């Protein structure tokens, strides 16, 4: 279970979506389809980017044992499960 990645999803999702929207609007694509595609790409990439950043933060922390990886496969994580 990776609780830090859930917090980072808020920041990475808004950042990726914002960058996508800026790129779309900078190219002059002012239609709804282009805007929805940029939003969709931001939403799809939100969790993988947050997970990579979370693992990077934990790998750089000297007090964190990043070797213990018991990934939870459930959609809603068990609060009593160990942190990844």
Overview of the structural elements:
- The chain crosses the membrane at residues 7-27, 33-53.
- Keywords: Membrane, Transmembrane, Transmembrane helix.
- The chain is mainly alpha-helical and 84 residues long.
- The protein contains 2 helices and no strands.
- The chain has helices spanning 3-26, 32-60.
- The longest helix is centred in the middle third of the chain and has 29 residues, at 32-60.
- The chain is elongated and about 50 Å long.
- The model has no long low-confidence stretch (mean pLDDT 85).
Short characterization:
By secondary structure, this protein is mainly alpha-helical.
- Overall number of structural domains: 1
Q: Report on the biggest sheet.
A: none
What is the count of β-strands?
0
Poorly predicted runs of 5 or more residues: none
Helix content: 55-70%
> N-to-C terminal Cα separation, in Å?
5 Å
* Overall outline: elongated
Q: Structural class, from helix and strand content?
A: mainly alpha
Order of helices and strands: HH
Nearest-angstrom radius of gyration?
16 Å
What is the average per-residue confidence, as pLDDT, rounded to a whole number? Answer: 85
| Fraction of residues in β-strands | under 5%
Number of helices: 2
Transmembrane segments: 7-27, 33-53
Keywords: Membrane, Transmembrane, Transmembrane helix
């Amino acid at each position: 279970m990776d609780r830090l990645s859930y917090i980072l999803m808020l920041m990475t999702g808004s950042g990726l979506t914002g960058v996508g929207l800026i790129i779309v609007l900078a190219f002059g694509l002012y239609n709804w389809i282009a805007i929805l595609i940029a939003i969709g790409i931001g939403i799809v990439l939100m969790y993988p980017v947050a997970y990579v950043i979370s693992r990077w933060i934990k790998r750089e922390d000297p007090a964190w044992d990043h070797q213990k990886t018991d990934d939870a496969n459930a959609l809603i994580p068990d609060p009593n499960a160990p942190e990844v």
